[in-house]
Amino acid sequence: MRDSIDFSTVLAASVHDMKNSIGMLVHLVDELSAELDQTNPRCGQLQFEAARLNNYLIQLMTLYKLEQQQYRFSQDEVYLDEFIEDLVLMNQPLLAPRGVVIEQQVPSDLSWDFDAALVQGVLGNILTNLIRYANGKVQVTAENVQVSADTAAEGLVIRVEDDGRGFPERMLGRLEGEAMGVDFISGSTGFGLYFAVKVAAAHQREGRSGEVRLSNGGSLGGGCFELYLP
Amino acid sequence: MGQGKHNFSGLRFLIIDDFANFCSALRTMVMSYGVSDIDVVHNGDDALQAINKNRYDVILCDYNLGEGRTGNDVLEESKHRNLLKSSNLFVMITAENTAEMVRGALEYQPDDYLTKPFTKEVLLTRLERLLDRSEAFKEVYRLRDKEQLTEAAALCEQLAAERGRYSGYALKLQAELLMQAKQYPAATALFQQVLMIKNLAWAKLGLGKSYYFQEDLEKAAATFSSLVQEDAGYVQAWDWLARCQQQTGDLAAAQQSLESAVKVSPINIRRQTLLGELALENGDTERAEVALGRAVKIGKHSVFREPDTYIKLSEVLVNKLESAEGLSKKNAELKALGTMDELRQLYKGDAEVNLRSRLVDHQIHTVQGNLSEADKALFKAYDICQHDETGALRADLKESLITRLEDKGREDLVGNLVHAMQQEESSHNRQAVEFYDQGDIERALKVLQLAAREKPRSFAVNLNLAQVAMHHIVKFGMDRKLLEQAGEALQRVAGIKEDDSRSKLYHNLQARYLKLKQRLGEAQ
User: Which residues on neighbouring strands pair with residue A79, listed in sequence order?
Assistant: First the structure.
């Protein structure tokens, strides 16, 4: 019998190639939709699915690297207004066909230290999913928060909300990676949340680590995703 | 964020991607911003040529350029050759999520990274932001391009103090300028100041470098060590650590460090070459073969390619030949000969490379006992030297050929080579004559000593060296070493024929030398 190769290694190796192929696919879809009728909802759908697949693979690859401790964590100062503007722009092609509008509320002088590539992956996925469930409005906010009344330590909260029907009851509260289970992470939203929890946990400062919280209601009455970074 | 604030119509763009489809898409995007001056190239060589010829305001370069060439090569080479002005924007486009890997491996950082796929709005926003920043640093860039580095650094300090969006960038740029101006103590102070507030990798790397250039190798090595402990993927820190270890003579540790670096980032010709050389010095021929083999493979399409790497690889293989047996011996032979073939292909018309490769061929065939092939290689080498009318080929290579011809008893060919070498002129020689005519004996002597190392058999050089050395003694007093040098130079001209126009000069100098020698004897 031959030694079997670790499945995650096979996956990691092939994800790379799939990623290239999807890059091409996304590009072709973009080209096609520019040639075809822009308002055709099926074009938007194609773009949407290709982008979703793309994000999925990037996250698979990143998760693998995080777990193998191959990921080079790089915290740098990020200005939130630019960061969120980028995120919104990346999701722009999905908005028009669905008639969804994104609003961003970010103080112009707010900056924070985190790994921009990781957090962008998290929020990109969440945003894509919330756009899917939204009725017509998604809102992204970022703000500085006091960790607790008795310390001067600060944290950053990035909040993504929609006006859809919200998250299922069993998902609400603070998410814990270990407790999420396979049935939770199956499906795009679940996987995206699992990734979010891993990324949040990778951000640590002075004994505090990042967290992910889900709630319903919020300012738009739908689902509310919160990423807290120390 | 100044959307639409910038007028793109006057900007010149260069798009570099090996994927024609992507180029045209990118071109369409850029055109939609109102840009009309757009060049598109599909490989690194064309890119460098274009950058050399034209000034581009914005360069959009894909990281993966196929055939082993990367956007990194283009960026490094452009910066190396000073082809970019400070205000020129270089945006690196990465196809995969490898940006975090790419970042730590780069000696020079692009102005921004962009991950494929992206929309035209995303690219536009990035460019607008970069142009905003360029606007804010316009004066700094102008000063930098005029080499007024201290002034540029001072201006950065002011901009950093404004505590805005650009203060981080301003600090980084200020540090870079101080390093460029070789104001290392000031750079150290700045890096330390940055590190007091935040543990930033670039600042720590810079701190280590500033120590290194102040020759505080101990502190430098400690700084780089702590960096790689925090992040084993930080290739540049490994490179610099290896440099420190090499300087302090700890070659084994230096090899170890580079091994760690190539584990993360193997596609770097200079790193692999250095690793091969270190392994060779450490007697680790196995690793040397691997590293040099990789360097050759990567370098095939790179401007950083060096013939030395090919020669060294073949030499490692020749060593292997001497001890190997059977199939591995045959493989080593084929690989060594193949390497030399490839080298000649890549450097067609380069006589020196040709000569060196023939000498290696001769060595391979000799070790393998293929005497007729060995002779063929030797005669090819001889032929190349015969055609060296300007004396451009290195003397040590010719000496090596002479030794081998002597071993074969071909005194006739040796005689021809030696004669030709004796007649060679040297550009240094001409320069020395100029100094001598200006009365600058000191400098004339220095240049002639250099010329004698370069053309040890040249009559013209040796006669001048003897003459100037003795003049120096007469003018500045007896110098035993200098007199010895004059004697040796004259000895190398001893074979001069009586009908040579310089024969009289030789005898004059010889007589003068004997007199000086006698005076030295009496003085003692």
Answer: A111
pLDDT at B68: 59
Residue B176 banded pLDDT, cuts 50, 70, 90: very high
Distance from CA of B233 to the nearest CA of A (A): 6
Closest CA to A126 of A175, A55, A60: A55
| B198/A113 Cβ within 8 A | yes
**Cβ-based contacts of A31 with chain B (< 8 Å):** 25
CA distance readout (Å), B286 to B237, B260, B266, B281, B292: 25, 17, 17, 12, 10
pTM for the model stands at 0.75
Q: Is the per-residue pLDDT at B413 higher than 50?
A: yes
pLDDT digits (tens, 9 = 90+) for A121-164: 899 888 888 888 888 889 999 998 876 666 667 889 999 999 98
Where do runs of H (alpha helix) occur along B137-198?
A: 138-145, 149-161, 167-180, 184-197
Tokens 């996956």 locate to A11
Chain B residues whose beta carbon lies within 8 Å of the beta carbon of residue A94: none
- Give the residue from chain A lying closest to B203, CA to CA: A76
Residue of B nearest to A61 (CA): B97
Cα–Cα dist B250/B230, whole Å: 23
**pLDDT value at B398 more than 90:** yes
Per the CB < 8 A criterion, the answer to whether B341 and B292 are in contact is no
Domain A75-229 of CATH type 3.30.565.10: yes
- β-pair type (A137-146, A101-105): parallel
Q: Are the Cβ atoms of A82 and B1 closer than 8 angstroms?
A: yes
Between chain A and chain B, the number of residue pairs with CB atoms below 8 A apart is 65
Per-residue pLDDT band at B114 (split at 50, 70, 90): confident
Largest CA distance in chain B: 90
3-state SS, A20-88, equals: HHHHHHHHHHHHHHHHCCCCCHHHHHHHHHHHHHHHHHHHHHHHHHHHCCCCCCCCEEEEHHHHHHHHH
Q: How far is B33 from chain A (nearest CA, A)?
A: 16
B362 CA: distance to closest CA in chain A (Å): 44
Distance from CA of B397 to the nearest CA of A (A): 47
Structure-block tokens of residue B96: 């995969």
Q: pLDDT (tens digit, 9 = 90+) per residue, B341-365?
A: 999 999 988 999 999 999 999 999 9
Residues of chain B in Cβ contact (below 8 Å) with chain A: 1, 21-22, 25, 95-97, 99-101, 103-104, 116-119, 121-122, 125-126, 129, 165, 168, 198, 200-201, 231, 233-234
Q: Which two tokens stand for residue A186?
A: 């199956």
For chain A, give every domain's residue range: 1-72, 75-229
Contact predicate B426/B461, CB 8 Å? yes
> Chain A residue closest to B130 (CA)?
A82
Whether B233 and A70 have beta carbons less than 8 Å apart is answered as yes
CB proximity A143 to B under 8 Å: no
Q: What pLDDT shows up at residue A181?
A: 65
Structure tokens belonging to residue B86? 């400070």
Name the pLDDT band for B29 (thresholds 50, 70, 90).
confident
Please report residues of B whose CB lies closer than 8 A to that of A90. 118-119, 122
Which residues of A fall within a CB distance of 8 Å from B101? 72
- Sort A183 into a burial class: Cβ within 10 Å, 0-12 / 13-18 / 19+: exposed
Question: A49 in contact with B at a CB cutoff of 8 Å?
Answer: no
Give the three-state DSSP class for B201.
helix
Q: Are B44 and B19 in contact (CB under 8 A)?
A: no
Residue B373, CA distances (Å) to A91, B337, B376 in order: 67, 12, 5
The secondary element (H helix, E strand) that includes residue A111 is strand A111-114
